[in-house]
């Protein structure tokens, strides 16, 4: 049974690749590619699969930070919309998962360049909040503005299997 706090998970995933969502930028993807964040389906784990950087995971994974700050990825939503909540799935990441996440959103009509997106004015929709490993972490969003992009922050670093941004599409007629 879905709790009231997780009821948003019944809404469409605005970041889904099927409707045109894409991960347009990440500051690091040493261990696993950013596009894995929005792959359809649940993350899978295949033991004893090693690449040049170690065990291969089905998700986005960054290197350990040795400085201040945190890692981020920017997702262009497949359709502009009102975000009701997010699922930050850390399945299979039992040791190297972020201890906290944050989400920011921006509205940028048309097809802005990555530089324009990086320079955008971002609105915090989920403040830095604790995350657990090997879990589908859910976060409600109360802001009812329309957004086109989401910036996921993982604090300080780690691995995220999937990101789902649930909401109501508000397509731009232009």
Tell me what you see in this structure.
Strands 1, 5, 6, 7, 8, 9 and 11 form a seven-stranded antiparallel β-sheet that branches. This protein is mainly β and 174 residues long. It is built from one helix and eleven strands, in the order ββββββαβββββ. The protein has one helix at residues 114-118; strands spanning 22-26, 50-51, 54-55, 60-61, 71-89, 100-106, 123-130, 136-140, 146-155, 159-160, 162-169.
Task: Explain briefly what this protein structure is.
This protein is mostly beta strands. The protein has one helix at 114-118, and strands spanning 22-26, 50-51, 54-55, 60-61, 71-89, 100-106, 123-130, 136-140, 146-155, 159-160, 162-169.
Q: Give Rg in angstroms.
A: 15 Å
Structural class comes to: mainly beta
Global geometry: globular
Number of DSSP E strands: 11
User: Taking all residues together, what is the mean pLDDT?
Assistant: 86
Order of helices and strands: EEEEEEHEEEEE
Separation, N- and C-terminal Cα atoms = 39 Å
Largest sheet: 7 strands, antiparallel
Helix content: under 10%
* Number of separate helices: 1
Low-confidence stretches: none
């Amino acid at each position: 049974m879905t709790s009231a706090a997780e009821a948003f998970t019944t809404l469409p995933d605005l970041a889904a690749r099927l409707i045109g969502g894409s991960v347009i930028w990440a500051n690091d993807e040493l261990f696993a590619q950013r596009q894995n964040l929005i792959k359809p389906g649940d993350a899978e784990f295949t033991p004893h699969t090693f690449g040049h950087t170690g065990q291969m995971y089905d998700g986005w994974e960054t290197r350990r930070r040795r400085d201040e700050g945190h890692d981020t990825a920017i997702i262009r939503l497949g359709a502009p919309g009102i975000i009701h909540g997010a699922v930050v799935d850390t399945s299979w990441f039992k040791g190297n998962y972020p201890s906290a996440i944050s989400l920011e959103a921006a509205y940028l009509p048309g097809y802005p360049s990555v530089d324009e997106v990086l320079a955008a004015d971002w609105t915090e929709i989920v403040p830095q909040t604790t995350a657990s490993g090997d879990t589908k972490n859910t976060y409600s969003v109360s802001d009812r503005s329309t957004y086109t992009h989401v910036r996921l922050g993982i604090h300080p670093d780690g691995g995220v299997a999937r990101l789902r941004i649930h909401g109501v599409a508000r397509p731009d007629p232009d």
